[in-house]
Amino acid sequence: MYLQTENKQTGKAVIIHSWRKANQIRDWFVRRFELDPNDQLKIPITRDDLDALTSDIEQVLTSHALALELLPTASGFFFGSTDYDGYYFEVLRDTRHFLQKEFTYNSDSENLYYTEWW
Asked: What are the CA-CA distances from residue 65 to residues 13, 52, 59, 60 (Å)?
């Protein structure tokens, strides 16, 4: 699972962030864009989408009881654990850190995608 930029002029794609077995993040995109959860995804997203994801992550990290509502786990082949355990919350903390501290993107020259390969 990846966040990827693609240069609008050259089409060159660059992976800027990746997840492994973060089914709660994948399911968030599936639900937000009303996609078929059985499809391999490549969807255009915006900074607003990532801000909404960050907001949901913040709420779940503040109140773990919101996990089932905002960032539920999803089962599936290669999707990893569906437990709300240390790994689940570690993925959320790592994602929040990336989106708040490291994420850069120039919408004038790049397209942004959530994509995956399995």
From this structure: 37, 18, 9, 7
Note whether 86 and 10 are within 8 A (CB): no
pTM of the predicted structure, to 2 decimals: 0.93
Q: Which residues, listed in sequence order, are joined to residue 14 by a DSSP beta bridge? A: 5
Q: Given pLDDT bands bounded at 50, 70 and 90, which one contains residue 78?
A: confident
Distance between CA atoms of residues 25 and 69, nearest Å: 13
pLDDT at 17: 97
88 neighbors 102 (Cβ within 8 angstroms): no
118 has pLDDT over 90: no
CB 32 within 8 A of CB 49: yes
Q: How far is CA 118 from CA 13, 17, 72, 86, in A?
A: 18, 16, 21, 24
* Pair of tokens at residue 22: 């973060």
Q: Helical H runs in 21-72?
A: 23-32, 47-62, 67-70
| CA-based end-to-end distance of the chain | 9
